[in-house]
Each structure stands twice: as structure tokens, then as C-alpha cells.
Amino acid sequence: MMRNKFIVVEGIEGSGKTTAVMHIKNILMDFGIRNVISVREPGSTALAEEIRCLVKKKFNNDLITINTELLLMYAARTQLIESIVKPRLKKGDWVIGDRHYFSSYAYQGTFSKSIKKKISILQSMFFGSFKPNLTFFLNISPYTSMKRIKKRTSLDRIEMNNIDFFSKVRLEYLKLVNKHSNCIIIDAEKKKNEVHKEIKTKLYTWIKNYE
Asked: Domains plus CATH for the chain?
């Protein structure tokens, strides 16, 4: 059996990341891998969950600047990676993440090249060469994204962005995943069972190639 890995699921709102993470966890367990945990960004630690609430909260008279948002994301990410992800990987557990640093490039980085430079600096400063072994990108159109999230009972600050924003975020994601060989693009426009079937097929192939 292959050594434990850090697998991440990325995508814009409504792409099905949360259910995909649980699906991957179940696939690994069916494959005989029992020591699997899942985490989410921002979140999964007490401090990071508090930061998540701040990032998503709709403030009336005090808008969160893009630099503040970026720093909050990295504060939450650093707390999660240092206190949970790295220790569990060292212990031999598999870790499945709902979002990681690609999200910063796609969401905050979409605003300007200077922000992307700051992300690169933060990433290098706090994580060095640490990165996921495999990233699944659930690819949906911004139209599908908007259609799905509008079905939710309430929208957070990020979900309230317009279709142009999510179009830019998706394009940033595609630029990233096409630059990295350890990324797999999944057509998440399909029905859930078809999406999960494709994830299972691609994950099985990846695992067998690394055995």
C-alpha cells in the first residue's frame, strides 16, 4: 500500500467540494486505507473556524479589504496546517482537504498581480515546499455556480459576489491546474453520481500508479 498523502479538492462555489471530500474519504476506506481525516479551509481548528466566520460575515459599514482577507486566510491556513495537517501526515494519516492555497490565488489573487506576488511570498514564508500530493479541481461554469448557490437559504459575503467575479475566479483556477502535473480536472457539471464515478476512476488510477 502506498504511503499516506495530502489530497485537496478545489472549485468555485456550488461545485460540490464538500460532498467530493467525503466521497474521496469513502473511496480510500474502501481501498483499505482506514486512517483518513478531512479538513476544510478556512476552518477545522477552533481559531480557524472563528476566522472563517469573520471572512464570510457581511459587515455593513466596515468592508474587509483584500489585503485583510488574504491575511486572515493565511492565518487560518497556517493554524490548520501546523496544528492538524502536518502532525497527522507525520503520524501516517491521509488528509483530505476542502480547499488549500490554490483558493487564495483564485479568489484573492484575481484582483491584481501585486496580490498574487504577496500570496507567493506568504506561501514561501510559511509553507516552503509543502503542498498537496494531489489536487482535484471540480470544474463548473459560473452560471451553474450561481444557479446552485441561489438555492441555499442564505448567502455569505463571498457567495454574494456576481457572476463576473466567479468567472474570473474559475479562470484563475484553470490557469493554476494546467500548470501543475499533480492536478486532475473533474467535469462537475454532470450529475453527482457521474462526478463521483469519475473521481473514483481517476483516484484509483492515481493510487495504483504510486503503489
From this structure: 6-210 (3.40.50.300)
